[in-house]
Amino acid sequence: MNKKLTFFLIGLLITVLVAVGARQIFANKHRETLTADQIENKIEKKYPGEVKSIRFSEESGEDLYTVELQNQTGSYEIKADAYSGEVVQLTQVKEKAAKPTTDQAAKGNEQAGHKTKQGIISLDKAKKIALSKVKGRFDSIDLEEEEGTLIYELEVETDKNQEYTIRVNAYTGEVLSVSWED
In what residue span(s) does the PepSY domain sit (predicted)? Predict the structure, then answer.
């Protein structure tokens, strides 16, 4: 009797796990993806510039839109979730040689209390600022929005394998914080 109960419980557990797994697999297939126009609108609201191209792809099982954006600081490749439009990756592909003037940056910062994305410093400038505060190897960079202000979050690893996170105001270049993991 005990063996039958054990086999029954194991069978029930396997059935439940298979059902939950199948539900997860098919959940995304039944959700509707956003249209390319909807993705373009979301990207244009979040980042300044002109969308040059949008293409749909599947990478590592995720449905994504890859957007090529060009603005006054360079060209960017943005990967956005096809269901929510949330940006999952931002990569600067090419930096423009001509940088905005101080007047242009100030004008961009004045509009909507930093809510505009005009006049941000380049990724390269943010890297230089971070590496001037912490000597080491640049690891990664993310551009995030907090309370209407864009902030670069950069990770730098020192020669002693200490990882630092440097937060830089994307409009002014001001270092907001330097933190590290113990």
Answer: 34-88, 121-178
